[in-house]
Design brief:
Elements (H helix, E strand, L loop, with lengths): L10 E4 L7 H7 L5 E6 H5 L2 H8 L4 E6 L5 H13 L4 E6 L1 H15 L4 H5 L12 E5 L11 E6 L4 E6 L7 E4 L9 H20 L5 H23 L4 H21 L3 H12 L4 H16 L7 H8 L9 H18 L16 H10 L12 H11 L1
Parallel strand pairs: 1-8, 2-3, 2-4, 4-5, 5-8
Antiparallel strand pairs: 6-7
The structure holds fe (ii) ion.
Length: 381
């Protein structure tokens, strides 16, 4: 493990009913006219109304539909300006939270989003105060200082990273997740699980990220089947929600690995949810990485409560991890294959070439050759 930097992020406010603390937090931030940025589905499900009744002075803008784009962010910013917003509450999954982060940043920084994607930490002014209220269990965006958006000019996803994007607080209330569809719990939970395990195996892992990632693996492995089976299981949903936030706090510091390099490449080209792509790639990537850093599988096996005694041969420990992860994903019903989406077999080499060059590959235990990535894709197909 080499030298590293780790920073503690937003305040975490956790608990069933914690949404009742939102008003107090906004007051502490000096806000009189908050704007809630959320998506149409949460408005329809009545979740936005529940948040609104906790902060009746807020204006609710429920027009996030899909991933953030420069156009969506400028509409969100306009809504904040139209209502004289002095703080923002992001209610939703990664798309709503990233849209809100970017709108808050542009409220106080001139220029175009794409201009800030070129250099890290180029947002010079703090954005409008932001409180993130996540309603999925995977993106971790509530804890990070990054945001992703689609740029129509460059036809690609760009990322902005700056302390000035970081929410002031992440308010985690598992009762707000009681209408989350099982498929979304499974997909976003698989994303968090993949990020946690890849984070432990990553060349960027350190003592702080290990502590958070391994606790996240512990919580996800015991809670995910229950949370997928019953969205009203507040205890299980709460464990998933806390695990996702822990992963969010750690992941930008450790980096991820080959499963994310492939999942993020697939996400740009095929209609496959990010967490599902992670779940599909995790098994093949674990089998390959077990041959590179088998000793790093020991703490993961312990966190999963999996496998042979600690003195067993490392290859057996790694195999136990891969099997336990496979069972966990199967119990969450994310045991898909790439051909199901469909990803045509003829496209696999192109995907392999792009994933090989993806920045997430740089923190895999070792960078994989194109032929190795192709092998992973063929195994997952
Ligand atoms: Fe991810």
């Amino acid at each position: 493990m080499s030298n590293y930097t780790f920073a503690v992020g937003p305040a975490v406010v956790y608990g069933p009913g914690a949404i009742s603390e939102l008003g107090g937090w906004l007051h502490k931030l000096g806000s009189r006219r908050p704007v809630v940025i959320t998506d149409t589905a949460l408005a329809k499900a009545g979740v936005a109304d529940r948040v609104h009744s906790a902060v009746p002075q807020a204006h609710v803008w429920a027009e996030v539909g899909g991933e953030p784009s420069t156009e969506l962010v400028s509409r969100a910013l306009q809504a904040v300006r139209d209502h004289g917003g002095d703080a923002v509450v992001a209610l939703g999954g990664g798309s709503s939270i990233d849209t809100a982060k970017l709108a808050c940043a542009l409220a106080t920084n001139d220029g175009e989003l794409a201009g800030y994607a070129a250099d890290w930490d180029s947002l010079s002014n703090p954005g409008l105060p932001l409180i993130a209220v996540p309603t999925t269990v995977g993106s971790g965006s509530e804890m990070t200082r990054g945001a992703v958006f689609k740029d129509p000019v460059q036809h690609s996803k760009l990322v902005i990273v700056s302390d000035n994007l970081s929410p002031r607080a992440a308010l985690l209330d598992p009762t707000l997740l009681d209408t989350l569809p099982a498929s979304v719990t499974a997909a976003t939970g698989s994303d968090a699980l993949t990020q946690a395990i890849e984070g432990v195996l990553s060349t960027g892992a350190n003592a702080f990220t290990d502590a958070l990632h391994l606790q996240a693996v512990r919580m996800i492995s015991r809670a995910m089947p229950r949370a997928v089976a019953n969205s009203k299981d507040t205890e299980a949903m709460g464990e998933m929600q806390q695990a996702a936030a822990m992963v969010g706090a750690a992941l930008a510091r450790s980096g991820v690995g080959a499963a994310h390099a492939v999942a993020n490449t697939l996400g740009g080209a095929f209609p496959i949810p990010h967490g599902v792509a992670c779940a599909i790639m995790l098994g093949p990537v674990l089998r390959l990485n077990a041959t590179i850093v088998p000793e790093r599988f020991v703490p993961i096996a312990q966190a999963l409560g999996a496998g042979p005694s600690p003195n067993a041969p490392l290859a057996e420990v790694a195999q136990a991890v891969t099997e336990a992860v496979g069972k966990l994903l199967a119990s969450a019903q994310v045991a898909w294959r790439l051909r199901d989406f469909p990803v045509p077999a003829g496209e696999l080499r192109r995907v392999a070439e792009q994933a090989h060059a993806h920045s997430d590959m740089s923190t895999n235990p070792r960078p994989l050759a194109v032929e190795e990535v192709l092998g992973l894709l063929e195994e997952a197909w």
